[in-house]
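Researcher: Re-running this chain for the archive, since the previous output was lost when a drive failed. Same request as before.
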Amino acid sequence: MAMLTVTNPLIQAYILHSALLALKLIAISSMTGFTRLSRRVFANPEDVKKFRGVVKFDDPVIERTRRAQMNDLENIPAFWILGAFYVTTGPGLGWTTVLFRMFTVCRFIHTFVYVLPVIPQPSRAIAYGIPYLINWYMGLQVVSYYISIM
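Model: Regenerated structure tokens:
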């Protein structure tokens, strides 16, 4: 089992990429709110009164941004859990750093190409698929490691 201290480069890589992904979640949430404000389209009547807009649940631009946000909320927490467990298996630093970096970069790309639909498929599918496979890889490595030592 790996030594779990903040001086461990594996833990440092995990913390760095986790923090970047958390900031990304905050940013996409802010982007959703900003998009609502700029389009004056809201989901709650009290917001309409305050900001002089309309209640609408199917604005295509807002819904696209919300879907990008929801996709992050479905995928990034799994990375946090599986990545934390993965570093306890003592993987190589180089490979782990590549996995974490690829996951993080692809999630940023995924949001970019989701919110700006002018970039054609399969760009979004690839940016989604690589982190998806990384989560599966880490999860299977964790299960395999801990089954083998039980």
